[in-house]
Amino acid sequence: MAGTRQIKTALVSVFHKDGLDELLAKLNAEGVKFLSTGGTQKFIESLGYECQAVEDVTTYPSILGGRVKTLHPKIFGGILARRDNEGDRDQMQEFEIPEIDLVIVDLYPFEDTVASGASETDIIEKIDIGGISLIRAGAKNFKDVVIVPSKAEYGVLLDILNKKGAQTDIEDRRMFATRAFGVSSHYDTAIHAWFEK
C-alpha cells in the first residue's frame, strides 16, 4: 500500500512512564528495536527488553546536567532523513546515522511546575529543549516517521499496532503530526504566558 511505513526502530524518551508498558510490550512483540536515554532506558530494561543507549549512537554522554542528551546529528538525522531521497540515504550511510521510524516523547511538566509555586530556577529547568525538538522533527517528517508527542497518544498508537502490526499509513502519521504540533503550540504558549507575567 502506498504510504505505508514499517516501524523498525523507536526512540523512546519520556518524563511520564505510566501507561507506557503496554505499548512497549506490543512494540517488542512486533520486533521493534528500542533506543533511549537515562531513566526511560532503565525503565525499558526493567521490563526485560533490550534497549540501546542514545549515547552509544552519538558517542556523547548526557551533558550540562541533562540539558543536552538527544540533540545530536545522528539522532536528528535519523528522524529527519527522507527515506526516498537518495542524497539523504547516502549521507545516512556515510555518517552511520540509524533510521528512527517512531519517536515517543513527552515534555517536562512546565505548567505543573509553575502551578506548584516553584522557584524561577526550577521553572526554567522545566523548559524542554530536546523533547520539543524531537516532537517537531518527527512531525515535520511525518511522511516517514510516527511521532507520539504525549501519553495521551499511547492508546492511539496501540490501537493501530493491534490492527495493522508495526506499520502505519500516511493518514496515521499525518494525524500524529497534527497532534504533535498541537502539543508544541500549547507548550510554547504556556511558556510565553509565564515570561509575559
UniProtKB/TrEMBL annotation:
The keyword Transferase applies. GO terms for biological process: 'de novo' IMP biosynthetic process. Gene3D superfamilies: Methylglyoxal synthase-like domain. GO terms for molecular function: IMP cyclohydrolase activity; phosphoribosylaminoimidazolecarboxamide formyltransferase activity. SUPFAM superfamilies: Methylglyoxal synthase-like (SSF52335). It holds the Pfam family AICARFT_IMPCHas. The keyword Coiled coil does not apply. GO terms for cellular component: cytosol. It comes from the Bacteria. Residues 1-149 form the MGS-like domain. Signal peptide: none annotated. InterPro entries: MGS-like_dom (IPR011607), MGS-like_dom_sf (IPR036914), PurH-like (IPR002695). Keywords: Hydrolase, Multifunctional enzyme, Purine biosynthesis, Transferase. This is IMP cyclohydrolase. It comes from Prevotella pectinovora.
